[in-house]
Specification:
single chain, 356 residues, alpha/beta, Arc Repressor Mutant, subunit A, D-Maltodextrin-Binding Protein, domain 2, 21% strand
Length: 356
């Protein structure tokens, strides 16, 4: 547990009277009580399991612990803290406000312990452990196919958990360490101090449609005015962004017929209808999407949010997670010159491409 986490936990309990009884330190991943037994990692696991499962019985069953022993563990933890962590109700247990703060910090500690164990084993040459990553739709289609096979060759026994999503939805997992890194569109939000980001590549969109679409040979957005569109959850304001593009070129607002939150939904809808989508241009580099959809070569510039990497700023990635991230960085080098252009400076006018 680092000092920033210690300070965060102290702030969570400020004014509750609990700090009078506690001395918090970062050594040995422990919270040391003045005159009381050392808090155990098993107690942290028990508390987080109750928060996740909603009842003591379900949490005990999930962890394979006898219910009486589990109950004693939580009761001892609450006595040490001097305050209840959960409200007992007829249909389960709900965290108190203090319990919520404690569980969030406990989850971060447990994830750091898991990371430390994984890193230790991987540095010893034992390719075990787990890696959890968050990827946007574009990163799934564009980077994952190029990184997955070499990662599996290098770390065949590492369990890989891949989440399709976007920041800030994945923010809590990145902060508590349950998600190792995120690759996707820059949300344009200020990150918490515990997180950092780097630009992987500048963003650019393309208009996508099914092969043989009647508008496939259009060369401008004006020629697409009568079309219906699928929106994608690329950023927290994805639906308004496509409208912003049309307003920028003084065109009527597009007809939004469907909203997709997954690559599968969007692809199925595109290839089985005359709907259009404005999606990251990197889709066409995907060996899956480039056989199912095509681009409409509009002349307007469709610059978008840069693709970024978000990681913890206070903890290095374990070797397996770092290796996977390096593979995805290298995959960017397989793109053509157009997709490696420098991002537009903030506030600078977008450049227009010449008609195809």
């Amino acid at each position: 547990m680092n000092q920033a986490e210690v300070n965060g936990l102290a702030a969570s309990y400020a004014g509750t009277g609990m700090m009078d009884r506690w001395q918090l330190c970062a050594s040995d991943i422990k919270l040391i009580s003045l005159g009381l037994p050392v808090m155990k990692l098993t107690q942290l696991r028990h508390a987080t399991a109750i928060a996740e499962r909603g009842s003591l019985r379900a949490a005990a069953r999930h962890l394979g612990v006898a219910q009486p022993a589990f109950s004693r563990s939580i009761a001892e933890l609450e006595r040490e803290l001097g305050a209840p962590l959960f409200e007992r109700r007829a249909k389960g247990m709900v965290a108190t406000s203090l319990g919520t703060a404690f569980v969030q910090r406990a989850a971060a500690i447990l994830n750091d312990v898991r990371r430390a164990q994984d890193e230790f084993e991987q540095l010893r040459g034992n390719a075990v452990g787990s890696v959890s990553i968050g990827l946007s739709i574009a990163a799934h289609l564009w980077l994952l196919p190029k990184a997955l096979r070499p990662f599996r060759r290098r770390y065949p026994k590492v369990h890989l958990h891949i989440i399709e999503g976007f920041y800030p939805t994945l923010g809590p997992g990145l902060q508590d360490g349950s998600v190792d890194f995120y690759i996707g569109p820059d949300p344009g939000l200020k990150l918490p101090s515990v997180l950092k980001k780097e630009i992987l590549i500048s963003g650019e969109r393309a208009v996508l449609c099914r092969a043989g679409h009647p508008l496939a040979k259009a060369t401008s957005l004006r020629q697409l005015r009568g079309a219906e569109w699928i929106t994608t959850s690329i950023t927290p304001r994805a639906e308004s962004e496509i409208g912003d593009v049309f307003r920028h070129y003084r065109l009527p607002a597009p007809a939004l017929a469907l909203r997709s939150q997954s690559a599968l939904t969007l692809l199925i809808c595109l290839i089985n209808s005359d709907l259009l989508a404005m999606a990251p241009a990197q889709w066409i580099d995907s060996p899956i999407a480039n056989h199912l959809v095509t681009t409409i070569p509009v002349k307007e510039d469709l610059s978008a949010a840069s693709i970024v990497i978000v990681t913890r700023s206070d903890a290095p990635l374990a070797p397996a997670a770092g290796f996977l991230l390096d593979l995805m960085r290298r995959a960017v080098g397989h793109l053509g010159p157009m997709r490696r252009r420098e991002p537009h400076p903030a506030g600078a006018p977008a450049r227009s491409r010449k008609p195809a």
